[in-house]
Amino acid sequence: MPSFLQGRHSGIVAPLDRANVDTDAIFPKQYGRSTARSGYGDVLFDSWRYLDPGDLGQDHSKRRRNPDFVLNQPALRGATVLLARGNFGCGSSREHAVWALRDYGFKAVMAPSFGDIFRQNCPLGGVAALTLNAGDVDALFAMAQHQVLNVSIDLMAGRVQAGPRSFGFNVSQRERHLLTQDGDWIAATLTQRPAIAAFEAARLTRQPWLAKTLEN
């Protein structure tokens, strides 16, 4: 099922006030020995979330939780939007990091910037990586300090509504397609058939000798 039904989502924001959060912090390497593509919600931010170390196959419900970590705050249980600082998802190209966010229940991550590969993996894993201006992220963190912050995200309009304030974000058409439709990068690319056909026609006009090459 698409993560953004009809291109919209509303939910509670979990403010993670840290920059340069790498994929090993999001999904520690010891859990990567599993070949499964799901079931990683309990180990999201594992070393920050728990006070004792964990490993694959462990019963995480019996581990001691860090009461100071944002996801362990009772008021933020059920949060579906993560607010972070710059360069979120940097480090190794670990798809499991996106799967852990998705399996926890996050539909979107809002930050000023993302690790490139992480951002590419996000829509494929059903998580929206929304790039906001740094000043807008500051404003959202300030709002989250004084209340449980709820936001409404309109993926098609590129807007986040938080109380009376509205913030814009950047997301590509292919990312919108992946988050609102059941499909992959190929299906998203094929939505651009007219543009592809126009490009090919213009290219053959500029380089007509290529037509003979293609025929051969």
UniProtKB/TrEMBL annotation:
<protein>
    <recommendedName>
        <fullName>3-isopropylmalate dehydratase small subunit</fullName>
        <ecNumber>4.2.1.33</ecNumber>
    </recommendedName>
</protein>
<dbReference type="InterPro" id="IPR033940">
    <property type="entry name" value="IPMI_Swivel"/>
</dbReference>
<feature type="domain" description="Aconitase A/isopropylmalate dehydratase small subunit swivel">
    <location>
        <begin position="9"/>
        <end position="132"/>
    </location>
</feature>
<comment type="subunit">
    <text>Heterodimer of LeuC and LeuD.</text>
</comment>
<keyword id="KW-0100">Branched-chain amino acid biosynthesis</keyword>
<keyword id="KW-0432">Leucine biosynthesis</keyword>
<comment type="similarity">
    <text>Belongs to the LeuD family. LeuD type 1 subfamily.</text>
</comment>
<dbReference type="InterPro" id="IPR004431">
    <property type="entry name" value="3-IsopropMal_deHydase_ssu"/>
</dbReference>
<dbReference type="GO" id="GO:0009316">
    <property type="term" value="C:3-isopropylmalate dehydratase complex"/>
</dbReference>
<dbReference type="InterPro" id="IPR000573">
    <property type="entry name" value="AconitaseA/IPMdHydase_ssu_swvl"/>
</dbReference>
<comment type="pathway">
    <text>Amino-acid biosynthesis; L-leucine biosynthesis; L-leucine from 3-methyl-2-oxobutanoate: step 2/4.</text>
</comment>
<dbReference type="InterPro" id="IPR015928">
    <property type="entry name" value="Aconitase/3IPM_dehydase_swvl"/>
</dbReference>
<dbReference type="InterPro" id="IPR050075">
    <property type="entry name" value="LeuD"/>
</dbReference>
<dbReference type="Pfam" id="PF00694">
    <property type="entry name" value="Aconitase_C"/>
</dbReference>
<dbReference type="GO" id="GO:0003861">
    <property type="term" value="F:3-isopropylmalate dehydratase activity"/>
</dbReference>
<comment type="function">
    <text>Catalyzes the isomerization between 2-isopropylmalate and 3-isopropylmalate, via the formation of 2-isopropylmaleate.</text>
</comment>
<keyword id="KW-0456">Lyase</keyword>
<dbReference type="GO" id="GO:0009098">
    <property type="term" value="P:L-leucine biosynthetic process"/>
</dbReference>
<keyword id="KW-0028">Amino-acid biosynthesis</keyword>
